[in-house]
């Protein structure tokens, strides 16, 4: 069974936290990720910097651009993941746009991921229709694979995504890109309902625009977890690792 | 090549194309594909588009024989398909009118577009004015500066122009920003993509809307110029004007097809936009195609004096035609293009866009190879008014400001 799904299946509300690999440096990103895990996130989403991140808002764009400027290379990713998984038990999912994986070689990337102790991969610009090689190799290696489902996905597409995802399905809360939003869309409930309808056993986490303790709680009333990204990057920028830790603690406060 | 190359449709051209986009956009792409399919076989849609071509754009565009220019091309006849004479000054309007009609059919009141040279932005702003749509154009900040005239045109036409300051601040980043807008506003907005790149159905649909160029030209060649040309030439940014003129000739095995990419500082430097020559297959902006990238799959910035060719990607059908060997692609440097621009201006009284000048420079090289008695049909994709500031600076015609 999926380590990520197991982590989400334990009692209580769940928080999935994003941080960009290599930001601001590789070592600093490892420390930040470990600190987030130790402060209470349930799953780590470790982002691969990419030159053309069309699903990301300005906060994450600027952070990942800086990581690239500071010399981030794909081969360092696996060292970083190895370091994180040797220090904490939290499942680590690598979040990456597709072209870096393609250039590395899908099967080779997957093998490196597995060897580094990562639980699997989240692929924001890869739909299951184009994912034949990834579906095959992730089955072979038992890696989690998280696809996205959105408010505009048809029932049929939501069902396919649900059936082909492992770990959880990433329910996109609102139409848009990453970045903090004041109001969490009620659209999110609809996306989750479609996924539950397709497979009541499948885990589902809601992301895009979540930034407050209230939102994390609200999402956990109907989903298996809340995904938070931009606000962690912002906290880190404002007050370093201490601010990041207290943001995690703030978001997980009273969850259980 | 026994099978018809012309009959090829998306989503895949060989191993190229597809839909590598966030799930958020799939419903909109499905809707667009269905709307386009229905429109294509609807006589009312075809009549409406034909009427716009005739009485708004001014089609068919003429073919001009460039005899004085040809004296510099090794004796080959040079024939110019005059897309520069279209309303708004380039081929871009062909695709824009088609897609704007589709936007209306889908009930979308807002269109967004990316633009490099500004010609696609101007055409989009024009269609928005004509059909009463809201229009937002994303344009790299570098390009807003080197194509300032077109920024003014778009604004006068009532469009909002958003300068994009991320990444290389050019066409690639304008497309990123347009995609982010589309992901957010997909319910109300049509993304009027300006070239034959992007996720299915864009490469096929945009090609179809531009195929009028080659269809007309093929007929004109047979009727008025004594037969099919030896070669067809066009510049290649994303590839829309090139595929538009190539498509009618794909199954004419004896007609050679040449695409000219921007070589920037030169093919022996790393400052170029010669995607098909120096790129590797990868995924950018929703399709698998040749792409300028590093070993990690990070997109490498392109360089060209021409904003419209300054793009590290290319449409998937060109990648397919290259690998098949049906079309050949070469690089033209900034200097070669600017020389050709001046030569065309002084020998024919036609000032071409800098993008187009790459095709002209290509023909100057091609002519001597094809030899006496050959003929080269060139897509004169746009006029050069927008480039006067760049050209004046380049040739030192103006005093420094
Ligand atoms: C006049 C002209 N020609 C060519 C191009 C290049 O685009 P494409 O390769 O899609 O024809 C542009 C783009 O801005 C243009 O304005």
From TrEMBL, chain A:
The keyword Membrane does not apply. Pathway: Amino-acid biosynthesis; L-tryptophan biosynthesis; L-tryptophan from chorismate: step 5/5. The lineage of its organism: unclassified sequences, metagenomes, ecological metagenomes. The keyword RNA-binding does not apply. It is an enzyme of class 4 (lyase). Tetramer of two alpha and two beta chains. Keywords: Amino-acid biosynthesis, Aromatic amino acid biosynthesis, Lyase, Tryptophan biosynthesis. SUPFAM superfamilies: Ribulose-phoshate binding barrel (SSF51366). Its EC number is 4.2.1.20. The alpha subunit is responsible for the aldol cleavage of indoleglycerol phosphate to indole and glyceraldehyde 3-phosphate. This is tryptophan synthase. GO terms for molecular function: tryptophan synthase activity. One of its GO terms (cellular component) is cytosol. PANTHER family: TRYPTOPHAN SYNTHASE ALPHA CHAIN, CHLOROPLASTIC, TRYPTOPHAN SYNTHASE, ALPHA CHAIN. It catalyses: (1S,2R)-1-C-(indol-3-yl)glycerol 3-phosphate + L-serine = D-glyceraldehyde 3-phosphate + L-tryptophan + H2O.
UniProtKB/TrEMBL annotation, chain B:
Pathway: Amino-acid biosynthesis; L-tryptophan biosynthesis; L-tryptophan from chorismate: step 5/5. It catalyses: (1S,2R)-1-C-(indol-3-yl)glycerol 3-phosphate + L-serine = D-glyceraldehyde 3-phosphate + L-tryptophan + H2O. One of its GO terms (molecular function) is tryptophan synthase activity. Residues 59-382 form the Tryptophan synthase beta chain-like PALP domain. PROSITE patterns: TRP_SYNTHASE_BETA. GO terms for cellular component: cytoplasm. The keyword Amino-acid biosynthesis applies. InterPro entries: Trp_synth_b_CS, Trp_synth_beta, Trp_synth_beta/beta-like, TrpB-like_PALP, TrpB-like_PALP_sf. Its cofactor is pyridoxal 5'-phosphate. Keywords: Amino-acid biosynthesis, Aromatic amino acid biosynthesis, Lyase, Pyridoxal phosphate, Tryptophan biosynthesis. It holds the Pfam family PALP. Its EC number is 4.2.1.20. It is an enzyme of class 4 (lyase). This is tryptophan synthase. It comes from freshwater metagenome.
């Amino acid at each position: 069974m999926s380590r990520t799904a197991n982590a989400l299946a334990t009692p209580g509300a769940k928080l999935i936290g994003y941080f960009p690999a290599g930001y601001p440096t590789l070592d600093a990103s490892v420390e930040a990720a470990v600190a987030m895990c130790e402060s209470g996130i349930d799953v780590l989403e470790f982002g691969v910097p990419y030159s053309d991140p069309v699903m990301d808002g300005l906060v994450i764009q600027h952070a990942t651009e800086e990581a690239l400027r500071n010399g981030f290379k794909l081969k360092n990713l696996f060292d970083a993941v190895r370091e994180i998984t040797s220090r904490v038990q939290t499942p680590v999912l690598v979040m990456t746009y597709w072209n870096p994986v393609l250039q590395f070689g899908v099967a080779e990337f997957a093998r490196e991921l597995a060897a580094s102790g990562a639980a699997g991969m989240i692929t924001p610009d890869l739909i299951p229709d184009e994912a034949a090689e990834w579906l095959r190799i992730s089955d072979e290696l038992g890696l989690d694979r998280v696809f996205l489902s959105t408010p505009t996905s048809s029932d049929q597409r939501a069902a396919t995504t649900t059936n082909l995802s492992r770990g959880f399905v990433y329910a996109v809360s609102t139409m848009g890109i990453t970045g903090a939003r004041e109001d969490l869309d009620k659209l999110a409930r609809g996306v989750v309902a479609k996924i539950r309808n397709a497979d009541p056993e499948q885990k589902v986490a809601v992301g895009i625009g979540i930034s407050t303790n209230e939102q994390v709680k609200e999402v956990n009333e109907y989903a298996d977890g809340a995904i938070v990204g931009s606000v962690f990057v912002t906290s880190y920028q404002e007050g370093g690792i201490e601010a990041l830790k207290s943001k995690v603690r703030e978001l997980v406060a009273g969850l259980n | 090549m026994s099978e018809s190359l012309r009959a090829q449709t998306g989503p895949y051209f060989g191993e190229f194309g597809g839909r590598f986009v966030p799930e958020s956009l799939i419903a909109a792409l499905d809707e667009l594909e269905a709307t386009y399919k229905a429109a294509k076989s609807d006589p009312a849609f075809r009549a409406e588009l034909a009427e716009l071509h005739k009485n708004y754009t001014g089609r068919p565009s003429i073919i001009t024989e460039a005899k004085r220019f040809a004296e510099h091309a090794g004796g080959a006849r040079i024939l110019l398909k005059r897309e520069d004479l279209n309303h708004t000054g380039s081929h871009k309007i062909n695709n824009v009118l088609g897609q704007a009609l589709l936007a209306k059919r889908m009930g979308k009141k807002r269109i967004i577009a990316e633009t490099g040279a500004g010609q696609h932005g101007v055409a989009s702003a024009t269609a928005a004015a004509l059909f009463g749509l809201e229009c937002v154009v994303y344009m790299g900040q570098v390009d807003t500066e080197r194509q300032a005239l077109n920024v003014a045109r778009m604004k006068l036409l009532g469009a909002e122009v958003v300068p994009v300051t991320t990444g290389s601040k050019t066409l690639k980043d304008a497309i990123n920003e347009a995609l982010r807008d589309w992901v957010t506003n997909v319910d109300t907005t049509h993304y009027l993509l300006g070239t034959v790149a992007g996720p299915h159905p864009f490469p096929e649909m945009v090609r179809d809307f531009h195929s009028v160029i080659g269809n007309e030209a093929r007929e004109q060649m047979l009727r008025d110029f004594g037969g099919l040309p030896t070669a067809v030439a066009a510049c290649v940014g994303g590839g829309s004007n090139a595929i538009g003129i190539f498509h009618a000739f794909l199954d004419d095995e004896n007609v050679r097809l040449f695409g000219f990419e921007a070589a920037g500082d030169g093919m022996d430097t790393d400052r170029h936009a010669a995607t098909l020559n120096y790129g590797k297959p990868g995924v950018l902006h929703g399709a698998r195609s040749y792409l300028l990238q590093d070993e990690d799959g990070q997109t490498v910035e392109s360089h060209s004096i021409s904003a419209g060719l300054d793009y590290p990607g290319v449409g998937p059908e060109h990648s397919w035609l290259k690998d098949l060997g049906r079309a050949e692609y070469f690089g033209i440097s900034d200097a070669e293009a600017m020389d050709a621009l001046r030569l065309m201006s002084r020998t024919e009284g036609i000032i071409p866009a800098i993008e187009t000048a790459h095709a002209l420079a290509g023909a100057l090289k091609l002519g001597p190879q094809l030899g006496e008695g050959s003929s080269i049909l060139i897509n004169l994709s746009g006029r050069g008014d927008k480039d006067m500031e760049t050209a004046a600076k380049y040739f030192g015609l103006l005093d420094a400001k």
